[in-house]
Design a protein that fits this description.
Blueprint: E1 2-3, E2 9-10, H1 17-26, E3 28-31, E4 34-37
Antiparallel strand pairs: 1-2, 3-4
Organism: Aphis craccivora (Cowpea aphid)
Protein name: Cellular nucleic acid-binding protein-like
Length: 78
């Protein structure tokens, strides 16, 4: 369980595409006595070497930026 917006709780579930599609079409799920909204979460691949998207470190050909912060692009200060 993760805290989400406004203090609500959120759960992330990994499942097969077929079942996820059916659940998304239904739009809700009942957990105990609580009716929960269901949304699809898109997951982006991010490179930890250059901080770019859609690829990973093993195939990265971009500039090495591992010494920089992934959020603000400034040098890490320890």
């Amino acid at each position: 369980m993760l805290l989400s917006y406004g203090g609500n709780k959120m759960a992330v579930v990994k499942m097969k595409c077929k079942e996820a599609y059916r659940l998304q079409m239904l739009g809700h799920l009942t957990v105990r006595l609580v009716r929960c909204q269901v949304r699809k979460k898109n997951q982006l691949t991010r490179c930890f070497r250059c901080h770019g998207f859609s690829h990973h470190r093993a195939i990265c050909k971009e500039t090495d930026r591992t010494a920089l912060c992934m959020t603000c692009s400034q040098e890490n200060q320890r």
